[in-house]
Every structure is written in structure tokens, then in C-alpha cells.
Specification:
This protein is an alpha/beta fold. The chain has nine helices and 13 strands. A nine-stranded mixed beta sheet has the order 5-4-1-8-9-10-11-12-13, with helices on both faces. Strands 3-2-6-7 form a four-stranded mixed beta sheet.
């Protein structure tokens, strides 16, 4: 069982010709509403790939019985939710320009309840965007910890980041988040990497790099026709974690993460084009060769 901690959200995704400068505006050429939230996206990806997953999240009282709730049930996602009466389920407003650059505005809504909620002690947890102090408590109490600060990286203090990284077994981040973590903590990129057993840094269309055991290994992207980059990182994490609990070596897990992400960016919406294991495997073989059987699992699952 993989446990995911973080936001469940409603995504309002808009296309714009360009992102406006301060005190300027632009026009929206397309706007649609999708299921989202970093933690929920990862949980959906894991469930679609065939692994058991529990989502720990905060939602408003309007969520129960909603289309989103029913979607999770169909996927088989187990819910451990803090329901906050009178609060909105978190909502993200995302704007993507013609160059693929993005700007996001996020309403925390019910997720503010994380701060005062009891943190669970979990055997295997991936912490996505959520309240920093809550994530600190989860990391301290759990056995195997994967951490991804996401766009909430700016909310973390030096002490909070250091506490989580000290307890983390795996660190995920994109190049912007890596830079911010280094600035907040006051370390170099190399020093940050040395603080964890395994780091996976994604670089959008430039691929990703795995750092573990003193080695650095690069994984290129799978070329596809891009419709929307939103959710690519979440899908990468879903693919990696699903493969990792099956016992695949970290480099293969990164490749599986890359392939999983390649499906998501072909369509608009973070959960609209998630692959199952069979579809992922077929594309993996096409781009990376045979997908060898996994070895013995390394985290007791």
C-alpha cells in the first residue's frame, strides 16, 4: 500500500497567448475544469497502474458524493479525508501560454485543516504539496518517506525543510524547486543531493536525473505531441512509486515515471489520460527496450 499525503483540488485550466506582466492583462482562449491536486493526481496515477493507494487529504463538505468523489471510487483510491464544513475543496487556477510556461493561483480552502490535524504514522508515504508543518510530523512518524515540495516549496522554512529532508528516503523536485530549496536551506545543489539517499530532479522537456549511491544517471523524455504540461510531474511520481514498490531498480523506476508522464501531457487535464500498466509497458519497450522483471523489493512491501 502506498500512502499519498497532500491536496485534492479542482483544476481550472486556461490557455492564454502569453502570461501578462504586472498590472497588465491577457485574454483567455480556452478554459476547462478538471480533477486535480498534486496528491490526488499521484494517487490516481498509482491506482490506474494497478497498485493499492490511500489518499490522505482535506476536502470541503460538498465533496462527498460529487463526480470527483465517484471518480476516485471507480479508480479504487482509498480515502482518509479530513472533511471541513463550510470550506471549499481546494481549487487551482492555472494559466498556460503558447510557449508552455505556466502561472498558478491556488485556493487552499479545506487544506488549511492540515495544520491542526493529527499526522498519521505510515509504512510508506509520499508527501506531495500540503501544509509544511503537517508534512514534518508525517515524515518524523513514518517508516519510508518520499518527499516532493512542489509549488508549496516557498511556504517551507529552513527548519521545516531540513527536518523533512533529514527523514526523507527519496527527494523529488523540478529545477525551480531545487533552486528554492537550496536558497532556503543555504546549501549548494550538490550538498542537497548528499543529504538524501536518493534524489530525482526533473527538468521538464530536458528529461530527469537520478542521484543515488554517489552516481548520476540521466533519463531523456519520451517524445510526444504536447497538449498541456500540467500534471506531468505528478504522473512521473506515480510511475516511479508504482514501479518501486514492485521492486524495480531506481533507474528503471525513473524510466517508468517518464513513460507515465508522457501519456498525461498528450491531453489537457492531470487525470484524463493516465495509462494502465499494460499501456505503459508497451510504450516503455518502444523507447527503452525490454522491461525486465523486477528484483526483490527494497522497502518491505
Amino acid at each position: 500500500m502506498i500512502h499519498i499525503v497532500g491536496h485534492t483540488a479542482i483544476d481550472h485550466i486556461s490557455k492564454v497567448p502569453h502570461l501578462p506582466e504586472k498590472n497588465c492583462s491577457t485574454h483567455i482562449t480556452d478554459r476547462r475544469i478538471y480533477y486535480g491536486g498534486g496528491a490526488s493526481n499521484i494517487a490516481a496515477g498509482i491506482a490506474t497502474l494497478g497498485e493499492q493507494v490511500t489518499l490522505h487529504s482535506c476536502v470541503g463538505d460538498e465533496f462527498a458524493g460529487s463526480d470527483y468523489d465517484q471518480w476516485m471510487s471507480r479508480l479504487g483510491i482509498r480515502q482518509q479525508f479530513f472533511v471541513v464544513p463550510g470550506a471549499h475543496t481546494p481549487t487551482a487556477f492555472m494559466f498556460t501560454d503558447d510557449n508552455g510556461d505556466q502561472m498558478t493561483f491556488f485556493e487552499w480552502g479545506a487544506s488549511k485543516a492540515f495544520a491542526s490535524s493529527d499526522a498519521p504514522a505510515l509504512p510508506l508515504v509520499h508527501m506531495a504539496t500540503a501544509d509544511p508543518e503537517f508534512n514534518c510530523r508525517v515524515a518524523e512518524r513514518s517508516e519510508f518517506v518520499s518527499f516532493d515540495p512542489g509549488q508549496d516549496v516557498f511556504w517551507y522554512t529552513k527548519e521545516q525543510l531540513e527536518s523533512i529532508i533529514e527523514n526523507a528516503d527519496i527527494l523529488f523536485a523540478n529545477q525551480h524547486e531545487v533552486k528554492q530549496m537550496c536558497t532556503t536551506i543555504g546549501v549548494t545543489r550538490e550538498e542537497l543531493i548528499r543529504r538524501v539517499d536518493m534524489a530525482i530532479f526533473t527538468m521538464s522537456s530536458d528529461g530527469s536525473t537520478l542521484y543515488t549511491g554517489g552516481k548520476e544517471e540521466f533519463v531523456p523524455v519520451v517524445p510526444v505531441t504536447l497538449a498541456d504540461p500540467t500534471g506531468a510531474g505528478d504522473a512521473y511520481r506515480a510511475g516511479f512509486l508504482s514501479a518501486y514498490v514492485r521492486g524495480y531498480i531506481p533507474l528503471t523506476c525513473c524510466k517508468i515515471g517518464t513513460v507515465t508522464a508522457s501519456f498525461v501531457v498528450e491531453h489537457i487535464g492531470c487525470q484524463t489520460h493516465l495509462p494502465d500498466w499494460e499501456a505503459m509497458s508497451a510504450r516503455y519497450r518502444k523507447h527503452f527496450g525490454s522491461l525486465d522483471p523486477p528484483g526483490k523489493g527494497s522497502i518491505g512491501v
